[in-house]
């Protein structure tokens, strides 16, 4: 079974998060969506963006503060950057919110289904037999990401998956379940479903991600 892209704007869903009803021999093992706070911080980097604007506002206010001018002079110095800050942060937050509300990840006993898209909704079917490994990244609060490495020649465009894709893997995009709750429990369900679907055993090895050595990762080899 090849990776299937059901590109269509769904006015309705016969089954939540799925483009069609599951066959009689297939059932849902787990279904969930990204957490808004965790997604905004990890995928949209809203905390780093807020820090950038705070530093920028400090730089604009510094001349007035250094000269001992009053509060009105300080406000005058940041009057142009303050509304831009609010607009940018609100826009990023709304994008993260809408992404989390419209994204649904579904794990069945045969595949992983990713329903993505705010305006144009598409679904990607990832057969468990084509998943080679899963990289589990733990975030604060028990949330986390599960990145799926795929076998075979089928590829999904990076832009079609974003933000449900591993950062900076543009030539060989890796679909990622972003900011999901109880990520460790979900990874166990994924491992068990993969084992049952393929009849092969999975190995779990703790690893450090090169871009973030402080983050906890669990490389689950499914080959």
What is Rg?
A: 21 Å
Distance between the termini: 17 Å
Overall spatial form = elongated
Count the E strands.
Answer: 10
Secondary-structure element string: EEHHHHEEEEEHEHEE
SS element count, helices:
6
Q: How many domain modules?
A: 2
Q: Which CATH architecture of the largest domain is right?
A: Roll
Percent of residues in helices comes to 25-40%
CATH topology of the largest domain: PH-domain like
Helix-strand category = alpha+beta
Strand content: 25-35%
Biggest sheet statistics: 5 strands, antiparallel
- Strand numbers in spatial order across the main sheet: 1-5-4-3-2
Explain what this protein looks like in three dimensions.
The chain is built from six helices and ten strands; from the N terminus they run ββααααβββββαβαββ. The protein starts with a strand and ends with a strand. Strand 4 and strand 5 (122-127) form a beta hairpin. With 223 residues, it is an alpha+beta fold. Helices cover 35% and strands 28% of the residues. The longest helix has 22 residues, at 81-102. The chain is elongated. The strands form two sheets. Strands 1-5-4-3-2 form a five-stranded antiparallel sheet. The chain has a five-stranded antiparallel sheet with strand order 8-7-6-10-9. The model is unreliable at 207-217 (pLDDT under 50).
